[in-house]
Design goal:
Blueprint lengths: L1 E2 L13 E2 L19 E5 H17 L3 E2 L9 H9 L5 E3 L2 H9 L4 E7 L3 H13 L4 E6 L2 H14 L5 E7 L11 H12 L4 E8 L9 H24 L8 E5 L5 H5 L10 E5 L11 H13 L9 E12 L2 E4 L14 E6 L7 E2 L5 E5 L4 E4 L15 E5 L4 H4 L4 E5 L5 E6 L3
Parallel strand pairs: 3-19, 4-11, 5-6, 6-7, 7-8, 8-9, 9-10, 10-11
Antiparallel strand pairs: 1-2, 3-12, 12-13, 12-18, 13-17, 14-15, 14-18, 16-17, 19-20
Length: about 425
């Protein structure tokens, strides 16, 4: 893929460059080689997170199919697969097609597929890539009927492999009752072209960082998953040699991991789908991983790898600086970004920001950085200063960029990724 000055963050006076050749340009953030704002990924933290999650899964004899919707980046999918990921998860057929085009062979669409256009696209995807296996979620008889109506009109003979989704009252999709799920499983068994391969759930809506609450609520949900899997096996409703049980967002995956290997007669594969582990963040998931670290008695878990770098463009009044980033550049759906370091163009290293600096609001293209004007001048931001900010919830920072440089610990660009939202 070639990028050019039509991509935000690319040097405006430079000729187009292949994404794979970014590291050869020797561009350096602290030398002012990039226009700001700029989202970057730190290689050291990225590699740490890949290995940390690989070890976590291996110790528990689990697999991971990380959610690709987090990054929508083929280069990062490749890194995850190289680190041992069983496959990649997606939220819809459009996203899954990106994965298939870039070599992903095993995919979970962790959502319901039922629209005619999506069913046709999935059918074409499977027909033209016979070595690819795609699983999607089913949670109602109405969905099965919609699939069969499409199949009758399309005359498709391509089978679809599906997972029954269990849901939580008042939350997202999924069967609420065991009897409903069993009736659906029997319906799938009796439906030509649908093959039931396992059970899925999503526990992320239960996360509170209250250990007692989270442990109890996840155990109850996973007990339902196991009860359904046992009952389906007893009635011979599964139609594959290996039963898939999958759950695991990015907040309390350690609790799910305790329950993904029930005792069944057939081989069972437990699959986590955590996606935000890869780049982590500085607020929301950092808090959640602190709780995971407490439960597992770990001194270190994941490291934040994603930062958005901006510049001070104005200091219009005491105690206020305006930065060159806003809602177009950085996530704000869960928490505002946090300023973490400062530097001047030409510096060799960055320095932590004073504790009284706080980003309090965002406009489309501006961030409001408040500080204590009564502190020494050396602790005040100044026009032209570089500010590195941590983010909360990486999903909604990635979707604001079409590429990101990967930088070393000194902010030299050594690689880059493309982003395909």
């Amino acid at each position: 893929m070639q990028i050019n000055n039509g991509f935000k963050g690319f040097p405006g006076d430079h000729t187009p460059v292949e994404i794979s050749q970014i590291g050869m340009q020797k561009w350096h953030v602290l030398k002012g080689d990039f226009p700001l704002p700029l989202a970057v990924i730190k290689e050291t933290a990225l590699e740490h997170n890949l290995l940390w999650m690989k070890n976590f899964c291996e110790k528990r004899h689990l697999d991971i199919a990380p959610h690709g919707k987090t990054t929508m980046s083929p280069e990062l999918y490749a890194r995850q697969l190289e680190a041992g990921a069983w496959g990649i998860s997606f939220a819809n057929v459009f996203q899954a097609s990106l994965g298939v085009r870039h070599g992903v062979k095993r995919l979970i669409i962790a959502n319901q597929v039922y629209q005619q256009a999506d069913l046709q696209a999935l059918n074409n995807l499977l027909s033209t890539h016979p070595d690819v296996r795609v699983y999607f979620l089913v949670d109602s008889v109405e969905q099965v009927d919609a699939i069969q109506k499409w199949r009758s009109s399309s005359q498709s003979i391509t089978p679809f492999t599906v997972l029954i989704e269990l849901g939580i009252e008042g939350k997202r999709t999924g069967c609420r009752e065991h009897t409903q799920a069993m009736a659906l499983a029997r319906k799938i068994k009796d439906t030509h072209g649908l093959l039931l391969c396992g059970v899925e759930c999503y526990e992320g809506a239960l996360a509170t960082c209250n250990h007692e609450h989270d442990q109890a609520s996840v155990a109850a949900l996973m007990s339902r998953v196991q009860q359904l899997a046992v009952a389906c096996e007893k009635e011979n409703l599964f139609e594959n040699d290996e039963i898939l049980l999958t759950a695991g967002g990015s907040a309390i995956f350690d609790l799910v991991a305790q329950h993904l290997k029930p005792q069944l007669n057939r081989p069972t594969r437990g699959i986590l789908r955590s996606g935000c582990y890869l780049t982590h963040d500085h607020v929301q998931y950092r808090k959640m991983l602190k709780c995971i670290g407490e439960r597992l008695q770990l001194r270190e878990t994941l490291r934040p790898a994603l930062e958005v770098i901006s510049s001070v463009q104005s200091c219009p009044e005491p105690g206020l600086a305006l930065l060159t980033m806003g809602k177009r550049d950085v996530s704000y759906d869960m928490d505002l970004p946090v300023a973490i370091w400062r530097a001047n163009i030409g510096d060799k290293v960055v320095t932590d920001v004073p504790t009284h600096w706080e980003i309090t609001a965002l406009n489309d293209q501006h961030a409001y950085l408040k500080f204590n004007p009564a502190t020494p001048t050396l602790e005040h931001p100044h026009v032209g200063q570089l500010i590195g900010s941590g983010i909360s919830h990486p999903c909604t920072t990635f979707d604001k960029w079409r590429w990101m440089p990967v930088v070393d610990d000194h902010y030299l660009a050594i690689n880059a990724i493309s982003i395909c939202f």
